[in-house]
Design goal:
Radius of gyration: 24 Å
Bound molecules: 5'-O-[(S)-butoxy(hydroxy)phosphoryl]adenosine
Oligomer: single chain
Strand content: 15-25%
Strand order of the largest sheet: 12-11-8-6-7-14-15-23
Largest sheet: 8 strands, mixed
CATH class of the largest domain: Alpha Beta
Distance between the termini: 23 Å
């Protein structure tokens, strides 16, 4: 985690370079001032840059904690991302410049992408998908992922993208929760030279997904040995994408959607064992995505924008697909790992495609730092003009390395704070306006109202506290799919009697200049390599193993990943601790949830430290995991438990 002492002593400041500022979309505080004076007017102005079928009658209908934006308005997201660019000079502009991990390449112009989307929209219709139906997308990072999302948007189907690294069980649970009718997957994807067996995983998941009627399989056989013959296709249920597309008509009128119709569901981890289906709607989401992409990344006609996130995460939704395409930008998409086949793959991609804006995660930057400057130095990175960071706090050291060795000390860095729930960036520098400080996300964007609050809800002007968004914003989540109560409880019940205050789950610090420093989660949610993992999810997986009686999971500081998963496990009678069992449990979690949740450490313990009321004291476990002096132990039911654990931990470390 970010070291507060380091942040407190950070005094370096980087004003926007003069030549960047000169050409930037936003270069004075006027926008902030007018947005603060009248946020509703501000958002209405932002919304006007989209194409609406029918205008809205009310900008905001706020019945805390439920918001409706642009009520009465209708629009179509695919039309905004594609059709409206086809009449002008963007028609033949590259929309997606894609590279597969094995080195295969494809470029789709706006014209070609629009055609593909219309044809696939017809395919979905032919499979019985109607407005409001849910469609699962479980694909590698290939252009068809964007095509599938946009095709859903075009006909008003609700997509639920599941990251290709998730297990069959994770896919199953998400498909069942949303009652998906169709799943779109591929014969495989490439990761570090290995094939991820997505179709096989899908088959396994669908053994227990009665709602799914059809599976569309994209052939991703580029350089690999997979062919049609190797894939088990179930008669009547499974269909090859390329075959369906052969006969699909390419005319498909966009469905006019109500601004508040659901655009997608995206599952994310919370503090229980069950992931939450975050619901985003059409109008407000696109207003937030399009306006923030334009402002924060200063998107211009000639830019080549590379957001390295997978479509399985919100970053991939908002800044790989919807935000940039709504702006008519050229997006780079790369399927694979940054160190495949060599550790210079990213820099090779930047140079080859002339990337001008690079948006990636601190965990990647720390890995690049560790791998050494010789890798970026091999390539000409002079096309870059702006860098971005997202997903976790970026330590000043990594920020400086990014600035010097990737940005050539000339590119502003935008450290963007946001969440799956916020739909788009909330706190970030505007690169032509804001002086940056390494490690600080700086200030809220125009139109957002963010405050630091105490546990009791008192505002804190400077110092540390809980991060709250105090006014609704267009791209905010609307609910949790099928569980509005959980929506109210998780996000709008932190401060009694104040259902208007959004609780982000993050701790933050505000300095004397009004700059924000995000300190990380204050709930039982981990951030491992920029990915959100609920401690309860991992615990639930562990206790399903026959040897495990009880499990407690905490985060542990990790040099590259930010945090790693550390599990404390008590065994059932008749089971003995062993390194083989430790390995088995690590693998078990990876199988249950996905490799990203695999614990780095599994500690066996005769007992877990609990309060007298039986609550596991994770705080003490964190102290043990970090090798820190133990905090207050006076509320422990049995103080001996932690001593035994500490000894055991010292053994296992040694
Ligand atoms: C959590 C949200 C939306 C981006 C991808 C992650 C952490 C995100 C930053 C940042 C410090 C950050 C927070 C947040 N986070 N960006 N710039 N600085 N922390 O989305 O999976 O919904 O996770 O990521 O802890 O709550 P997510």
């Amino acid at each position: 985690m970010t070291d507060i002492a380091v942040l407190l002593s950070e005094t370096r400041s980087f004003p926007p370079p003069a030549d960047f500022q000169r050409q930037a979309h936003v270069r004075d505080r006027g926008l902030h001032d007018s947005a603060t004076a009248d946020p509703i007017h501000y958002w209405a102005e932002q919304a006007k840059s989209l194409t609406w079928r029918t205008p809205w009658t009310q900008v905001l209908d706020w019945q805390p904690p439920h918001a409706k934006w642009f009520t009465g308005g209708t629009l179509n997201v695919a039309e905004n991302c594609l059709d409206r660019h086809l009449a002008g000079p963007r028609r033949n502009k590259a929309a997606i410049v894609w590279e597969g991990e094995p080195g295969d390449r494809r470029t789709l112009t706006y014209w070609e992408l629009a055609r593909e989307v219309r044809a696939f929209a017809n395919v979905l219709k032919s499979l019985g998908v109607r407005k409001g139906d849910r469609v699962g997308i479980y694909l590698p990072l290939i252009p068809e992922a964007a095509v599938a999302m946009l095709a859903c948007a075009r006909i008003g189907a609700i997509h639920s993208v599941v990251f290709g690294g998730f297990s069959p069980e994770s896919l199953r649970d998400r498909m069942n929760d949303a009652q998906a009718k169709v799943v779109i997957t591929a014969d495989g994807g490439y990761r570090r030279g290995q094939i991820v067996p997505l179709k096989r995983n899908t088959d396994k998941a669908l053994e227990e997904c009665p709602s799914v009627q059809h599976v569309v399989v994209v052939q991703r056989r580029a350089a690999g040995p997979i062919t049609e013959a190797h894939v088990d296709m179930r008669e009547g249920r499974d269909h090859w994408y390329h075959r369906l597309m052969q006969h699909a008509p390419d005319a498909c009128a966009p469905e006019p959607m109500d601004a508040e119709d659901v655009l997608f569901i995206l599952y994310t981890s919370g503090t229980t064992g069950k992931p939450k289906g975050i619901v985003h709607t059409t109008g407000g989401y696109l207003v937030g995505a399009a306006s923030s992409a334009r402002m924060v990344f200063d998107l211009k006609e000639e830019d080549v924008f590379w957001c390295t996130a997978d479509v399985g995460w919100i970053t991939g939704h908002t800044y790989l697909v919807y935000g940039p395409l709504a702006n008519g930008a050229t997006c780079v998409m790369y399927e694979g790992a940054p160190d495949w086949p060599e550790r210079d793959r990213f820099w090779q991609l930047v140079a080859r495609h002339g990337v001008t804006i690079l948006y990636t995660a601190p965990t990647a930057i720390r890995a690049f730092m560790k791998w050494g400057v010789e890798h970026p130095r091999k390539h000409d990175l002079s096309s870059l003009r702006l860098l971005g960071s997202v997903g976790e706090p970026i330590n000043p050291e990594a920020w400086m390395w990014y600035h010097e060795h990737i940005g050539g000390a000339r590119c502003p860095i935008v450290d963007t704070w946001w969440q799956t729930e916020t739909g788009g960036i909330v706190i970030s520098p505007l690169p032509g306006l804001t002086a940056t400080k390494p490690g600080s996300a700086t200030q809220p964007l125009p139109g957002y109202s963010v405050q630091l609050l105490t546990q009791q809800g008192e505002p804190i002007p400077t110092g540390g506290g809980l991060l709250s968004i105090t006014r609704p914003w267009p791209s905010m989540l609307r609910t949790i799919w099928g569980d509005d109560r959980r929506y109210v409880e998780t996000y709008f019940s932190k401060w009694a009697g104040r259902p208007d205050l959004y609780f982000a789950g993050d701790g933050a610090k505000r300095d004397e200049d009004g700059y924000w420093w995000i300190l990380g989660r204050v709930d039982d949610v981990l951030n491992v390599a920029g990915h959100r993992i609920g401690t309860m999810e991992v615990e639930s997986a562990l206790v399903e193993h026959p040897a495990v009686a009880e499990a407690a999971v905490v985060g542990k500081t990790h040099e590259l990943k930010g945090q790693s998963v550390c599990a404390f496990v008590t065994l059932r009678d008749g089971h003995q601790k062993s390194s083989a069992l430790r390995e088995e449990l690590r693998e078990f979690v990876a199988q249950k949830i996905g490799a990203l949740a695999r614990p780095d450490d599994v500690l066996f313990s005769a007992d877990l430290p609990k309060t007298r009321s039986g609550k596991i004291m994770r705080r003490l476990l964190r102290d043990i995991a970090e090798g820190r002096a133990l905090g207050d132990t006076t509320t422990l039911a049995d103080p001996n438990v932690v001593n035994a654990l500490k000894e055991q931990y010292a053994d296992s470390e040694g």
